[in-house]
Write a structure and sequence with these properties.
Blueprint lengths: L5 E5 L4 H12 L3 E6 L24 E5 L5 H11 L3 E4 L6 H6 L1 H21 L7 E7 L22 H20 L2 E7 L2 E2 L8 H13 L6 E3 L5 E2 L2 E2 H12 L7 E3 L5 E2 H11 L4 E4 L6 E4 L5 E5 L17 H6 L8 H21 L1
Parallel strand pairs: 1-2, 1-4, 2-3, 4-5, 5-6, 6-11, 7-10, 8-15
Antiparallel strand pairs: 9-12, 13-14, 14-15
Helix pairs in contact: 1-7, 2-4, 4-5, 6-8, 6-10
The structure holds NADP nicotinamide-adenine-dinucleotide phosphate and ligand F7E.
The site of NADP nicotinamide-adenine-dinucleotide phosphate has 26 residues, from α1 and β5.
Length: about 350
């Protein structure tokens, strides 16, 4: 029997899944990942660690499955008998959750229940630890600042509401069935691998393209929202640490530093050495290249949500104390990396 620990990641093809699988492979885990059938390849973020299925010995094994399909969830868990399950699978876009609320609830809320039920049904309580990808969006219309593990939830989107269910069902199965089930309450985390429709990646991509003369204007929504932005690589480490505790528990993971979307834009502009000038406020805000009429940022009200989460700021003292977790990146070093990688990928695009 192999001595390696076995992990199963739902959502391995996403931003966090890719960093977590790299981290676990370095720790000699056998990593199983669930991928969805898609009409085009969706494994871009994990292609660099992909292993040929014809190889006899592999430590990364991919399976088709879907978090909305109880049978696939249950049979994968029974077949793999993982020591650790990370549930990162979700319809993770807040604005999109207003467009597909029922699917979001099915995947993000009931998907979590499906995994917990499979652990219980197959009597894996003594073997399998479970991590749930919770979110600062559960705090929504915040009850206090900064937010910690005791702050009440007040979600402001179908996404946030679904994640609150997932949070409490994780606590419920921990208490009712003694499953080692934990919630990480992670604040926004970004990276060069962030999906292109999230604001940080959209800003970096748009402004790099403008710098290279490939695009004229970037359209954004609410510039006043405040977020606590960390790096996904640091947050993947926290996920693993949460499952290594002696007792299951819930942890806030955050940097403790808050910026508005506009301040994030300004840092990217500085990193790109673009001299800029803002004019107007709210919907008529616009940004020019200083001394010119080149409007590089404009507001499109279609990017506003039916409800906004105005401000999020995390207090991760508990994780820093009990998990000895500390981020290596700050927002400036993260932006530097995102800009560098974006400019490189634009170079590659030009070659093709
Ligand atoms: P992401 O890049 O959107 O990745 C989501 C992953 O879930 C992808 O692998 C996606 O597969 C998969 N997925 C979606 N629906 C699925 C389904 N029905 N069945 C199976 N897999 C499905 O998200 P992320 O940024 O890595 O975030 C990971 C988790 O943390 C999510 O649960 C998210 O809600 C949560 N979270 C994220 C943040 C953040 O700031 N990034 C903060 C707090 C919590 P495809 O590649 O096929 O689409
Ligand atoms: O928006 C504003 C927008 O979509 C951030 C997910 O990973 O983090 C993420 O959710 C802010 C919001 O992330 C645009 O209104 C302005 O206030 O990048 P975002 P999010 O909604 O905070 C949490 C923690 C998660 O759990 C989620 O899974 O930026 N904003 N202009 C814009 N947002 C987008 N997407 N696009 C814009 O053009």
């Amino acid at each position: 029997m192999s001595k390696n620990k076995v992990a199963l990641i739902f959502g391995i093809t996403g931003q966090d899944g890719s960093y977590l699988s790299e981290y676990l492979l370095k720790k000699n885990y056998i990593v199983h990942g669930v991928i969805r059938r898609s009409s085009s390849f969706n494994t871009g973020r994990i292609d660099h660690i992909y292993q040929d299925p014809h190889k006899k010995k592999r430590n990364l094994i991919l399976h088709y499955g879907d978090i909305t399909d109880s049978i696939s969830v249950s049979s994968l868990i029974k077949k793999i008998l993982p020591h650790e399950i990370y549930n990162l699978a979700a319809q993770s876009h807040v604005a999109v959750s207003f467009e597909v609320p029922e699917y979001t609830a099915n995947a993000d809320a009931i998907g979590t229940l499906r995994i917990l039920e499979a652990i219980r049904f197959h009597k894996l309580q003594s073997r399998t630890r479970f991590y749930q990808a919770g979110t600062s969006e559960m705090y929504g219309k915040v009850k206090e600042t900064p937010q910690n593990e005791y702050t009440s939830f007040y979600p402001r989107s179908p996404y946030g509401v679904a994640k609150v269910y997932a949070h409490w069902i994780t606590v419920n199965y921990r208490e009712a069935y003694k499953i080692f089930a934990c919630n990480g309450i992670l604040f926004n985390h970004e990276s060069p691998r962030r999906g292109g429709t999230f604001v940080t990646k959209k800003i970096v991509n748009g402004l790099c393209r403008i710098k290279k003369g490939l695009q004229k204007t970037l359209y954004l929504g609410n510039l006043e929202a405040k977020r606590d932005w960390g790096h996904a690589k640091d947050y993947a480490v926290a996920m693993w640490k949460i499952l290594q505790k002696r007792e299951p528990d819930d942890f806030v993971i955050a940097t403790g530093v808050q910026l508005t979307v506009k301040e994030f834009v300004n840092l990217v502009l500085k990193e790109l050495k673009i001299d800029y000038l803002w004019k107007g406020k709210g919907l008529s805000s616009r940004c020019f290249i200083k001394g010119t009429k080149n409007k590089i940022i404009s507001i499109d009200k279609n990017y506003f949500r039916p409800l906004e989460v105005d401000t999020l700021l995390g207090n991760s003292k508990k994780a820093r104390r009990e998990l000895k977790w500390k981020p290596k990146y700050n927002v400036k070093s993260m932006i530097k990396e995102m800009v560098y990688e974006e400019l490189n990928s634009l170079k590659d695009d030009k070659k093709n």
